[in-house]
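User: Sequence in, structure out. Go.
Assistant: Echoing your sequence, followed by the structure tokens.
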Amino acid sequence: MFLKTFGWSFGITAVALVVAFFYGGVEALVLCAILGVLEVSLSFDNAVVNARILEKMSAFWQKIFLTVGILIAVLGMRIAFPLLIVGVTANLNPLEAVQLALEKGDIHTPGSYAYLLHDAHPLIAAFGGVFLLMLFLDFMFEERELHWLGFLEKPLAFIGRLQGAAMAISLVILVIAAVMVRPGKEVDVLIAGILGMITYLLVNGLGELFNVDGDESPETAAVAKKANNGVGKAVGKAAFMLFLYLEVIDASFSFDGVIGAFAITSDPIIIALGLGLIGAIFVRSLTVFLVREGTLDDYEYLDHGAHWAIGALAIILLLTISIEVNEVITGVIGVFFIGAAFLSSIARNKRITAAQKTPADQLCS
């Protein structure tokens, strides 16, 4: 299963590293590898969240996510998105933006591609930070029987009883972030953050509107259920909305990696190879592995750990509007929450197994 799921990722990684070597020698190869590791370390929580959504989709839409979704992740977010931001910021047409990118200007050189993208970071961070913060708060504010960090999650669930709590808290944090930004960017940061909130509300609301149970006719639902071994999966409009939701979440997670990559290199080719071909594809493979192995059901605290990592990433993104935060810190925090949730899940499973043993079983063991 491991080789079947990750084999093509290792193959593409080898190809990307070879291309990087012929493109810029040993230095380019090393930078490409570093960017790939950076993207994967930043995206463990992304893979967990993606897997939880992906397992609700039919086999057909899972394949769409792994094919069309890959193109969107690699070509869209890791290549086209930075070009679009620079083009809009500097009032350049697409060809001029590409030419500027290929000049590989230093991040500290005014007018360079890296400089312009870095200058737009407060807006990008506000949009992505608020979107992810809403995702985190909606999860934590939901009433549930299972809690991981109960001393925090139970009070948050109680706060969640207040209608509109997630929106109110997100707006307060956004205003604080806007106040801390350098002069002249306050309004832009507020607008970007509000757009991030609107995007989350729209995508999440449309997902609930086209719900899995009510979307299809009984005949279509029966066919879908039979095709998925008796388990109802999202098809049609419901699956399409889940797909859009996945892509927006993936885009929000990629913001910090795309911006942070320019602190390592300003070469768009190496960034595309490292973040796109290596990082993004490994994250997709990890998502598929979690779905096929049923890992999220076997280790039930992983959902909680992923969302705590999302909350940390959201706060870090909003902090980077006014201060510099090393991307390594972001990656370490994400891995810490996922790892801690995984170990807690193992301990919980052992307690459940021990409690289910009969006295006779305990004597035999």
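User: And one key feature?
Assistant: The radius of gyration is 22 Å.
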